[in-house]
Amino acid sequence: MSKIKFAVLGYGHIGRKHAIMVDGNPDCELVAVVDPNEEARERAKEFGAPVFADIDDYIASGIHADVVNVCTPNGSHSRMASKALDQKSHVIVEKPMALTKADCEEVIYKSLQAGKNVFCVKQNRYSPSSEWLKSLMVEEKLGEIYMVQMNCYWNRDDRYYKKGGWKGSKELDGGVLFTQFSHFIDIMYWLMGDIDDIHGQSTNFSHKKSTEFDDTGIVYFNFKKGGMGSVNFSTSVYGQNMESSIAIIGSKGSVKVSGQYMDQVSYCHIEDYEMPELPPANPPNDYGDYKGSAANHHYVIQNVINTLQGTDVISTNALEGMKVVEIIERMYEAFEA
Predict the structure, then answer these.
(1) DSSP string covering 270-285
(2) Rounded to the nearest 10 degrees, what angle do helices 128-138 and 182-192 cross at?
(3) Which overall architecture, per CATH, does domain 4-120 show?
(4) pLDDT per residue over 247-304, tens digit each?
(5) CATH of the domain spanning 125-293
(6) How does pLDDT run across 32-43, given as a tens digit for each residue?
(7) Could you give the CA distance from residue 119 to residue 318 in angstroms, rounded to a whole number?
């Protein structure tokens, strides 16, 4: 079977991770890297694939990738995905899928027209603690769900929001719920489903000079399947990440998964249930001065390969990607109400 050809758009920390995963997989071939930054393009030459300054140059070259990995700034995800779909390539899009539900819908429409798949990167679903939580929900071990609380308390300071970059921009970054915490909101959606009756408030404590959006917020809502929920978040924590956690209280038991990256089971008390020993979590992605969510991208790439080879189905499809964007969009609308 011939190798699956990949092109990576965007060669920052996450784009390089995609390129490494592709280059190191015997079923894959990296055929192009695209980045407007000259220094990034120079670094990208390490893989020996052709390097281009923008997607139009890549398209004009005549090189065709079976899969295009969109690892550009958030606000360009939908535009890059659409251009790749126009070239009849499958697409892997980093979180968030877009910054509006309308842009997600446009990508989905184009994917249906082209007959190509859109794979959304939600690598935290592969963490042992997340898979364990999902099994509890599927098997209804906790009974009726009463309450879910998610806390996301991280540090992002001037080491992260460098002048001249896209981070902190409303147009390209979108806000901390899109950039820092969408993976955790995805886990909540994956476990509990959609939400409604959303209320909240937000403010900007420590990033007034570096971001065009608030850094801290409280949002509360109801789950459509029943139960109430809340998300408390901030990127104003001093010095380092503090916690990402989810606590679920049900009629037959309660659990809490916490740690800096929501990867440690800190509480489990369930009727007639013995907590299994979970495999260790992968270390978080390393972004220089910062660490981020789980380093599980190899699972994402392998799912793409298996899906295209017909041995698996998409683990996180475009509709799921759109739902997470829609939930975040509605949370931000609640802050402005």
Answers:
(1) ETT--PPPPPPPPPEE
(2) 20
(3) 3-Layer(aba) Sandwich (3.40)
(4) 999 999 999 999 989 999 999 999 999 999 999 987 776 666 666 666 789 999 999 9
(5) 3.30.360.10
(6) 999 999 999 999
(7) 6
| DSSP β-ladder status, 195-203 and 216-223 | antiparallel
Spatial separation of the C-alpha atoms in residues 52 and 59, rounded to whole Å: 10
Among 210, 147, 215, residue whose Cα is nearest residue 175: 215
What angle is formed at CA 182 by the lines to CA 180 and CA 183, rounded to 5 degrees? 95
- Averaged over 212-216, what is the pLDDT? 98
- Pairs from 136-141 (Cβ < 8 Å, separation ≥ 24): 136/255, 136/270, 137/191, 137/192, 141/252, 141/253, 141/270, 141/273
The residue type of 246 is I
- Per the structure block, which two tokens stand in for 26? 């015997």
- Residue 82 near residue 88, CB atoms below 8 Å: no
Q: Where do the structural domains in the chain lie, given as residue ranges?
A: 4-120, 125-293
Contact 266, 275 (CB under 8 A): no
* Between residues 1 and 318, the one the model is more confident about: 318
Q: How far apart are the first and last CA of the chain?
A: 55
What would the pLDDT profile of 101-159 be if each residue is shown by its tens digit?
999 999 999 999 999 999 999 999 999 999 999 999 999 999 999 999 999 999 999 89
Structure tokens at 31: 């055929």
Spatial CA neighbour of 87 closest among 119, 109, 55:
55
Query: How many angstroms from the chain centroid is the CA of residue 103?
Result: 16
Separation CA 301–CA 6 (nearest Å):
10
**DSSP code string of 9-40:** E--SHHHHHHHHHHHT-TTEEEEEEE-S-HHH
Nearest Cα to Cα of residue 213 among 45, 328, 44: 328
